[in-house]
Amino acid sequence: MPVFAWFLLVFFVVPALALGWVLRVEMARYRRTIVWCLAFVYTIGAGWDWLSVRTGVWRYDSAPTLGVWIAGLPIEELVGFYVFGTLLIVGVALLALGRSRRV
Length: 103
Known about the structure:
The structure is a single chain. By secondary structure, the chain is mainly alpha-helical. It has helices at residues 3-22, 24-29, 31-54, 75-102; strands spanning 69-70, 73-74. 76% of the residues lie in helices and 4% in strands. It has a two-stranded antiparallel sheet with strand order 1-2. It is globular. The model has no long low-confidence stretch (mean pLDDT 88).
């Protein structure tokens, strides 16, 4: 498996799934918010990434990726980083809000 995929698996996918399991009731309660967050991330994030790659601000090497590209972006970025990164942020926010309510 390529380096980028391993990185996302270890630091995004596994923690997001673990946090999602621990907070499954809260995540289900806020699923509409999660969908809106994902829509925002895909709109702004993918647009930003695409424009940055198009204008040469940065680039993705094909060697450390799976080699599947959509609109000039690696599939790992579009799935691993955007989806699981968003779930991590929402999960941590729910965890923090839950703890602040209990205090």
